[in-house]
Amino acid sequence: MTSCRTAGASANWPRLAGAVAGVVAALALSFAGASAHAAPSPAAAKAAAKVAELSAEDKACLECHARPAQPKMLASGEKLSLAVAPKAFAQSVHGGEGCEACHSGLEEGHDKQPRKIASRRALALEMKDQCADCHKKAVKQYDDSVHSALVRTGSDKAPLCSDCHNPHTATSLKDQAEASSEPVVCQKCHEGVSKAFAQSVHGSTGDEALACKDCHRTHNVKAAAFADNMRKECLSCHKETAATHAEWLPNADRHLEAISCPACHTPDATRRVNLRLYEGAAPHQSTDKVGVPKFVKLANWANGNGTGGLDARALWSMLQEFNQNGSAGKMVLRGRLEVQTGEQAHQLAAKALAIKDCDTCHRQGATSFQAVTVSMAGPDGRPLRHEASKGVLTSVESIGSIGGFYAIGSTRIKLLDVLLVMVLAAGIALPGAHLTMKLLSRRQRAKAAAAQQGESSGSK
Hints:
Blueprint: H1 4-38, H2 42-53, H3 56-65, E1 71-73, E2 79-81, H4 86-91, H5 120-134, H6 136-143, H7 146-152, H8 161-164, H9 173-179, H10 182-186, H11 191-198, H12 212-216, H13 229-237, H14 241-246, H15 252-258, H16 261-265, E3 271-279, H17 294-302, H18 312-324, E4 331-339, H19 342-345, E5 372-377, E6 383-388, E7 402-403, H20 414-459
Parallel strand pairs: 3-5, 4-7
Antiparallel strand pairs: 1-2, 3-4, 5-6
Helix pairs in contact: 5-6, 17-18
Signal peptide: 1-38
Keywords: Membrane, Signal, Transmembrane, Transmembrane helix
Organism: Ramlibacter lithotrophicus
């Protein structure tokens, strides 16, 4: 027979076992926590090691600058934070260079004599020269960009080095590529374009999506509308374009020259004809000079300072004035069909949705030809535009200057060929008729004068 004590012990054994298990689990968790505390994650360990590698001079700087809230009031009324996160700086590409690599002009005790700074913009302009000491190639490319051109023309919004690269946290190009942070930087200024691009065939393909720099470059960013900048970028990837278009498109080369890619590959876009000023046979658009707004001045003068668009006569007068004011070559217009906004230029659709119907453009009253502008590249490469009436496209006075936009046989629509021949014939015949009438009238006047002189002599 089992005793009462033995029976009680047997009954309490499950409870005792549970208590022991709980103690063991608690100890295990305790040891695990201690182990985790003693052995930080690889990333944390790397960050700690980087901070430890900072020089004694940098650590001395961080004794003050590691404090989180340090706003400095600038003369402009702006606040500039002087705080620097030690871990982020140590892990940045500049961590190994040290503070004095960029801040070489500071002396010991500079905190007792605060430096006067006009504005955040003024400081960024000043520090750009420091960037050039190490990043000569990048700064040289930047100096040739549309962003730098905007700075030179006085823009206070054009990006400087520190607008895209935080000097205290900038990481390597490899790390930036992995983080895919570039669109975030660009959309600070180009938010509308960034949103449009994200929905396009190029921006909605996940990991294979293009980045801004793939077409616009990183530092040497050019004005997209200038000359054939963007067409060249498209063809750098789509190398087979000329051959594939020639399979179905009449006069494919002329179409590719006179029509921007988005004009057909953004099917829902609104389009316009842009007549761009070129100097004779020069490969690039004519450019207005800094401080000499010749295009705007002449366009307004030719238009009588009116609010409407340039008509054919006004456009002809403007071209004549350009050619009389010291242009090296004869100024001509080259037409291009394009979309009307930068957002539309980035909304490229899948190839299957591209416009292939000739009738979209080559029909009477086509919407693509209802809006016309005349443009010249500004000092920064961006276009200066002036509206023109759609009548300039078929006017006798301007048709001779609109080269490269339409040619006989460029479409399957014979009526257009006939109309163009008639316009060209009129362009030749009317001046000829005018000259003939002028000569005939001159002869008639001479005869009348001679007869009158003879009568006067006879009367004497």
